[in-house]
Amino acid sequence: MIQLILILLLSTAFFILLYVFVRRSSARAEGGAEALVEARQALNALQDNLLPSELVRRIFAREDLNFVSSSASGKIRGAFLRERKRVALSWVSQLRKHVLRLKQFHSGRSRFYAQLDLRTEIALALSFASLLFVCRVLEAVFYIRGPFAAPRIVGAAIAVAGDICAASELSLAFLSSPAPAPNLAGGGSTHAGTI
Amino acid sequence: MEALILFRCLKTGIVRSYPLFFAYLSCVFLGDLALPPLSRILAPQPYAISYWTKEFVCVIAGYAVVMEIVERAFAYFDGPKRLGRNAALLIFAAIVGLTALRAAFEAAPKTVGAWIDIEANLRAAELVILSIVIAVIFYYSVPIGRNLKGIIVGYGFCTVAVAMNEAIRSFAGHSFEAAFTHIWSYSYLVSLVVWAATLWSRQPNPAAGLGQIDGDYEALANRTRATLADMRGYLRKAVRP
Asked: Which residue in chain B is spatially nearest to A3 when comparing CA positions?
């Protein structure tokens, strides 16, 4: 009976996996240069699309709530909270997107290495999965408790932004090729010049 | 249908890219051709031996197909290929070892139920290996051509159907025999349709132009690991007011 249940569970999971595999978008044919460009684009996006620290501080500024609460009606306060919540959720979704890009960057590069270490790869895959999960948890926290529920989120968010920028700079240094990198962000990027 | 697929594989040259899959399908085809007349000629006992011999040859050929999938899917990616190959061999060795141990410690598996049980385990192990291969394909965004995708989907569907059928058959016994025949026929037909559609013309895997990198993989992994750890730390702070 246990064997039957296990095989049925395994089969169901495999059916789902197979379905997702069939639905997978068409194969990505990547040449060497293309793969490198994509990796650089991912890093550029990670660096440039991060919300500036001042903006992050502004989004989660409790002073704004205090000001609206003290000088406006409850209706306006409600509208303000709804709007800020929407912005906070958008912020965390951006953060999640960057983590995903970092993951794609790692897997996109590491697949070309012949000496992949199974334990390292599994550990990294689990780390990415857990970090993405934390982002989902953050989304839930913002959704349930609102954007001002965690006052320290402002400092932490700025730190995350700074850390991601620093990390991407380091990764880029590791990846940097002798040739100068083109401005892949398509203009408007404040960090493009550093890459 | 099998003959048509085999013919197309020969005509389009797919047989050169996927010889083990071609051998597997030929094996199933020949078995399907030979077994019905044998059932009329042979006594039940010799027929059962022929049937189970064919089944186990097909299972082994199936494992060869899985190994071929690993080799072809990760042809341009040595690291993922090594991971997939090692995982497949490890699981295969484990399941064969466990089955052998079981056969050694228990009474010799002479009953049909015992053979069904063994085949169900072998198919389940095959499912695990295929799941790992598909997961690796996903994780590393490995580009897959239409031919290989068809082989994976068709073979995966066929294997999952057999594994489920064998498990239920092993549990329910003869009462499931008639239903098994029907379910197996239809699920195998689905696999054949998938193979016929995807192997009609030769569409090889997209080539990845980038060769192996001589850089330090450890450095890349360490950088990524450090970044993840820092980000996790900051996120932890963020959720705690």
From this structure: B167
B chain contacts of residue A174, beta-carbon cutoff 8 Å: 215, 219-220, 223
Q: What is the 3-state secondary structure (H, E, C) of chain A?
A: CHHHHHHHHHHHHHHHHHHHHHHCCCCCCCCHHHHHHHHHHHHHHHHHCCCCHHHHHHHCCHHHHHHHHHHCCHHHHHHHHHHHHHHHHHHHHHHHHHHHHHHHHHHHHHCCCCCCCHHHHHHHHHHHHHHHHHHHHHHHHHHHHCCCCCCCHHHHHHHHHHHHHHHHHHHHHHHCCCCCCCCCCCCCCCCHHHC
Range of the domain at A56: 32-176
> Residues of B numbered 76-135 whose beta carbons fall under 8 angstroms of chain A's beta carbons: which are they?
77-80, 82-83, 86, 117, 120-121, 124, 127-128, 130-131, 134-135
| Average pLDDT rounded to a whole number, residues B234-239 | 62
More confident residue, B65 or A141: B65
Counted domains in chain A: 1
ipTM: 0.72
Separation in Å, CA of A96 to nearest CA in chain B: 11
**Token digits of residue A20:** 């997702």
For residue A92, is it within any domain?
A: yes
Nearest to B205 by CA among B16, B15, B12, B17: B17
Rounded to a whole number of angstroms, the distance between the first and last alpha carbons of chain A is: 59
- The answer to whether position A66 is within a domain reads yes
> Is A184 inside any structural domain?
no
Nearest to A125 among B139, B149, B171 (CB): B139
Task: Quote the pLDDT of residue A192.
Answer: 28
- Minimum-distance CB partner of B238 among A28, A128, A152: A152
Nearest to B159 by CA among A13, A23, A9, A14: A14
Q: Is A80 among the domain residues?
A: yes
